[in-house]
Design a protein that fits this description.
This protein is an alpha+beta fold and 96 residues long. The protein has 3 helices and 3 strands; from the N terminus they run E-E-E-H-H-H. Strands 2-1-3 form a 3-stranded antiparallel β-sheet, with no helix packed on it.
């Protein structure tokens, strides 16, 4: 799993643990052609509902960007969609 935490770029392998401190910008991606899995532990509790809700939005054809923005705001997240092209170019990622 590729990660960017602040200005640090990491490659996490099976069994690795990565700390993403609250308030530090971060992104993650799968740099391989095969599916990847990750376990995200968030404390304190309550944020797990965000993942359930975003899963529903992203599962729909043509995700609703307004719904994504509303969801992020409800959970106090600041998203930077403008970082996606940079991350894709720097790490050879295919988006969409």
């Amino acid at each position: 799993m590729g990660l960017e935490v602040g200005e640090t770029v990491l490659l996490a392998r099976p069994g690795d643990l990565v700390l993403k401190p609250r308030g530090v910008p971060h992104a993650f991606w799968n740099p391989a052609d095969e599916p990847a899995r990750m376990l995200e532990v968030v404390t304190p509790g309550g944020f797990e509902s965000y993942f359930e809700e975003i899963g529903e939005i992203l599962a729909a054809p043509g995700p609703d960007l307004a719904a994504l923005g509303e969801l992020a705001a409800r959970y106090g997240l600041m998203m930077d969609p403008m970082s996606v092209p940079r991350l894709a170019a720097e790490h050879g990622l295919v988006v969409g």
